[in-house]
Design goal:
The longest helix is centred in the middle third of the chain and has 39 residues. The chain has about 240 residues and is mostly helical. The C terminus is likely disordered. α6 runs parallel beside α8. Helices cover about 80% and strands about 0% of the residues. The protein is built from ten helices and no strands.
């Protein structure tokens, strides 16, 4: 392997980058916050726009949430992080639903998939809110999956706002605590979010659909209606 010059060059470059990262003095969190204050009143808007656009793609939202707390403090940082996250979730949902749902629709005919899709259509807000609270699945994956399902837009967006608010607040406050601004006791909120989200998923799993709402019954009703219509036509002839 060492006879490959390209590999050796790549290893040397990686070693140089690691050495530079270890030896270069980095600013402390307080200095970062001071730089943000000196950047002018438009810097939060630029950061907000970047946060919104970048997190439409599968990029970890936590990086921007932590940066919001470091750069802008708990109040402005929380407002920027929540607003940008909600706008990003809405944009990702609408883009995938417009350009991607028709392409995957032929693959959603399996009874198990249709059952899950029907559950999301009727009470998807519960599953979305629980997943946002736990933050088990990546932010972008939840956005894309919901867009491909039958969940309605406004329940999805409302559950997103409620679901991300506690965890985002805890992350922003904990990030701001690195500057010495607040005490990092807000980690309790993160644990409470995980507990609440787990309870929500448990309720959603236990919540059985009514018999007349299930896809199988709907198919049977359609079949019965078709049979009755065919018999009526034969009788009339």
């Amino acid at each position: 392997m060492l006879s490959d010059r390209r590999l050796v060059l790549l290893l040397c470059l990686a070693a140089v980058v690691c050495a530079a990262a270890l030896l270069t003095p980095l600013p402390d969190p307080r200095q970062i916050q001071e730089w943000a204050e000196e950047a002018g009143p438009y810097f939060p808007l630029v950061f907000f726009a970047a946060h919104t656009v970048v997190t439409i793609a599968p990029v970890p939202r936590t990086v921007f949430t932590v940066a919001s707390g470091l750069l802008f403090g708990p109040v402005v940082g929380l407002a920027v992080a929540v607003a940008a996250s909600v706008l990003s979730a809405a944009a990702a949902f609408l883009l995938v639903r417009v350009f991607g749902r028709d392409r995957v629709a032929p693959y959603l005919d399996h009874p198990s998939v249709r059952l899950v899709d029907e559950r999301l259509r009727r009470r998807g807000w519960l599953a979305v809110g629980a997943l946002r609270l736990i933050a088990f699945a990546p932010f972008s994956v939840v956005n894309y999956t919901c867009a491909l399902s039958s969940i309605r837009f406004w329940p999805y967006l409302g559950a997103t706002v409620i679901g991300i608010l506690p965890g985002t607040a805890a992350t922003v406050v904990l990030a701001d605590a690195l500057t010495g601004g607040t005490h990092p006791a807000m980690v309790v909120i993160s644990l409470a979010c995980i507990a609440a989200g787990s309870i929500g998923l448990f309720i959603d799993q236990r919540w059985k659909p009514a018999a007349h709402d299930s896809p199988a019954v709907a198919d049977r009703d359609r079949t019965d209606d078709s049979g009755r219509n065919a018999r009526t036509v034969v009788a009339e002839q």
